[in-house]
UniProtKB/TrEMBL annotation:
Organism: Jiangella ureilytica
Entry annotated with the keyword Ubl conjugation: no
The protein's name in its UniProt record: FxsA family protein
UniProt entry keywords in alphabetical sequence: Membrane, Transmembrane, Transmembrane helix
GO cellular component: membrane
Length: 163
């Protein structure tokens, strides 16, 4: 309902054609932003997989990784809001592109994600020494997570075993 009121007000101010053109333009901007952020995240992931390292690099601190992840999350949220037609969502999406606002919202998104997935944070991160997901760590209800049992697979190629 708010979006419809905003559309009528903007259409009265600049004309219906211009209002619809502005809505289409912000949707295109949102799709472009989502594509850029998605491609950036995908290329970092591919490079990390090719090098056999953590996506942001081993030397980067946990706080720097969290801040970078939060910034990317806020940019993606901005792109999603810009993609939806409507002046109110467009305004919120554009405000999210302002760096101080983006950092603040990103920190809140990261804090929310860490509350939702508590095993993903800690000094060492998931599966790293000192992190909550390390070897022998227990989750809710005393369930063990992250225990690694090393071993090797031995295949026997003798004809007798292929029955």
């Amino acid at each position: 309902m708010i979006e419809l009121i905003a559309l009528v007000m903007v259409a009265n101010w600049v004309g219906l054609g211009w209002a619809l053109l502005i809505l289409a333009g912000t949707s295109v901007l949102g799709v472009a932003l989502l594509r850029i952020e998605g491609l950036r995240a995908w290329s970092e992931l591919r490079a990390a997989a090719a090098d056999g390292r953590y996506p942001e690099g081993e030397a980067e601190t946990a706080n720097a990784r969290s801040a970078r992840m939060a910034d990317t999350g806020a940019r993606i949220l901005s792109g999603i809001l810009l993609t939806f037609p409507g002046f109110v969502t467009d305004l919120i999406g554009l405000v999210l592109l302002v760096p101080p606002v983006r950092r603040g919202v990103g920190r809140r998104l990261a804090a929310s994600a860490f509350r939702t997935f508590p095993g993903r944070r800690g000094p060492g991160g998931l599966g790293r020494p000192g992190g909550q997901g390390g070897p022998g760590a227990t989750g809710p209800g005393g369930i063990h997570h992250g225990v690694v049992i090393e071993g090797e697979v031995v295949e026997n190629d003798s004809p007798r075993d292929q029955r």
